[in-house]
Amino acid sequence: AQTVTQSQPEMSVQEAETVTLGCTYDTSESDYYLFWYKQPPSRQMILVIRQEAYKQQNATENRFSVNFQKAAKSFSLKISDSQLGDAAMYFCAYRRGFRPNYGGATNKLIFGTGTLLAVQP
Amino acid sequence: DAMVIQNPRYQVTQFGKPVTLSCSQTLNHNVMYWYQQKSSQAPKLLFHYYDKDFNNEADTPDNFQSRRPNTSFCFLDIRSPGLGDAAMYLCATSRTRGETQYFGPGTRLLVL
Lengths: 121, 112
Known about the structure:
- The structure holds two protein chains of two kinds.
- Chain A is mainly beta.
- Helix content of chain A is 0%, strand content 50%.
- Chain A is built from no helices and twelve strands.
- In chain A, strands 2, 5, 6, 10, 11 and 12 form a six-stranded mixed beta sheet that branches.
- Chain B has strands at residues 4-7, 10-13, 19-25, 31-37, 44-50, 53-56, 64-67, 73-78, 87-94, 102-103, 107-111.
- In chain B, strands 2, 4, 5, 6, 9, 10 and 11 form a seven-stranded mixed beta sheet that branches. In chain B, strands 1-3-8-7 form a four-stranded antiparallel beta sheet, with no helix packed on it.
- Chain B is globular and about 35 Å long.
- Classes of the chains: A mainly beta, B mainly beta.
- Chains A and B meet through β6 of A and β4, β5 and β10 of B.
């Protein structure tokens, strides 16, 4: 079974500084996707960034980038120039790649337990 | 804006009293999901619909049911809520299978 581990329950960063959130996963699949979702307090979960396992290049979205180490099964999120609005719970998630005969299994997001990020002014 | 809407945002029910949570979407996505997120835990998939095809997770209790009367709406029914069912319930959608999921704001359920 696939698992996702976030070993840092809480982290803190100063405004304008850089912070890296860690995530490791375990799978025997070769085709899969990894995600970082952000869940601000009392607000909906939004997708921050997505990485396809078959792509060697690390995904980037503005101030957010990932360090995807496939052999090590590591998928960390780097937030540059941290802003107060970045304060949230961050979830790392895994989903296996789509195959028609996988049926419902291909749709399942498996989440880590989250890292609560505080941004200090 | 196209979005995923959940009503109500907060729901209080009594132990054993059936409750229904609602999700609607304006994205015209084929797939709708229900996740349960207990306090300080990761969200956990309960089931999902691919169009009208219902897919239940193996470890979802029988107490939880779902209905999808049309593309836009999906309901989560808890037949006899227990104290352990208190959680945030998240609805998500994706355009089709294997595509990015978009979440609603969630409904926080309290069981008294």
